[in-house]
Amino acid sequence: MIKALCAAVLVAACSMSAPALASAPTPQPKPATTPGGGCTASMAPPPESAPPTSVNTLRQAYFCVLDNYYSGPVMDAKALLKSAFAAYTQNLMRRGADRADLGLPALTGNRDTDWAAFAKVLGAGDPAALRAAITGMVAGLHDNHARWVRPTPTPEGGPTGTGIVGASAQQGPELDPAARPPLFITRVLPGSPAAKADIRAGDIIVKVNGVPAFIGDTVNQSILDALASGTVRLTLKRPATGRTRTVELKEGPITRQPPAVTSKKLADGVAYVHLPGFYEGAAGQVIAKLQGKPKAVVLDLRGNGGGSPREVTRLLGAFAHGKVTSYFCPLKGDCVPNRTDDSVPLLGSRLVVLTDRGCASACEDFSAAVKDNDLGTLIGTRTAGAVSGPGEGYLLDDGSVLLLPRVRHLGPAREIIDTIGVPVDHYAPMTALDLATGRDPGVAKALTLL
Question: Which residue, 146, 220, 99, is CA-closest to 407?
C-alpha cells in the first residue's frame, strides 16, 4: 500500500526538478561543479541497470550535497558524515554484521581530509549499509524536498500492489504527524486486490498487522513498514454500518491510469475541476475545461502532491495578471520573484480552491498565491507544509538520483510556508463517513459561498 503512495510522491518530487526559476530555460545534463563530487545534474530518467552502490557512490552523494544543496556551501561537513556513519553502523547492527574496528574517525571540518579519513575506515564498504548511509545523510538535512531515489525495475507482467493508493494521513513517504484519528482509506484502484476484497474509500484502518493506527491521538508511524510489505493484515471498520472485519491483503496486478483533469457542473454557472497534480500540461488541461468561462470555478486540489512551478504560474495567469506568485531565494543574493503567466487569457471567473493535508509543494505554491493575492477563497484544511524549494536531480554512479533544492521557496508576502502550510478561509475536512456516503463538505461549503 504505502509503496504505491510513496511512488506517487517521488513522481511529484522528480517533476519539481524543473528549473529552479520558473522563467529559466530547461537545463541540460552537465557535470557538477565540484571536482571531488562527480555527480551529474540530469533531467533524464536513471538507467535501468547500473553497478552496485559503492564507497564512491557515497563520496559522490557527500560532495554533491555540499556543492549543490541550497545551504551546502556553508554546511558543517562533519554533520553530514556523522549522519551517514550512524546510519551505516545501524544497518550493520540490524543485520548482525557489525565490525569491531568500525569507529567514526576524528573529523576536522575540512571536507576533503575528513572524507579521506572516513573512506579509509569504511574500506571496501558494505553495499546495503552504504545505501543506508546515503539515506541517513539525506534524512539528516531535514528537508522534505531532499531525497535519494533508487529506481526499481517494473516487474514482469506489469505493476503490482494492493490497490490502496490513498489514505487520510498520507503525507509524502510518512504519515502526517498532525493527523487526527481515524486513519481511513481515500482511494482504491478498480480491479485491484483491495477492490476485490471489497475495501472501499472511507473504510477506517483500525490496525495494521495487529498494530493500532493511532496511539491515543498520535498517528503510529511504525505501521509504515507493515503497509509496505507484500502481504498485510488490515483490521477495517466501515463507518456507515460500524461493522469491523480483518482482511489479509496480498499484492497483485494493478492498473494505473495516468493523472488527468476531470470536471463537472455543480450548479448554474459553477464548474468543478479536479486537478490531481501540476504535471506537464496540467494548466492547459484545466483551462480547456473552462473554455465556457463559467461565473465560478471550484478547483479541487485535495491530494495534489505538487509538480512543476511553470504549471502553477500558467494556471494562475487564467485568474489574474501582474501578480507575484512566490519567491525563489538563493543562499546569497536577492530573491527572484515568480509571476503570473500573463500570456494566458483571463477567464474572469470567481475562484474557490479546495485544499487538504495532501496538498503539497507546487500545490501549496498555488494556494498561497491565491490567498495572498486575494484571488479566491480556500476551503478544506491547512496544506501539508512541504514546500522547501524545487528540487533538481543529480545522477550517481549506481543509477540512483539525489533530489536537492538549490533555492528556498517563500510565499508572495515573503512568508515561510514550508513546515507550516497555507491556512484555509473555511475549515471543512473530509471524514470517513463523508467518503463512504458520497458527501463532500468542501463542495457543499463552496456552493453556500457562491
Answer: 146
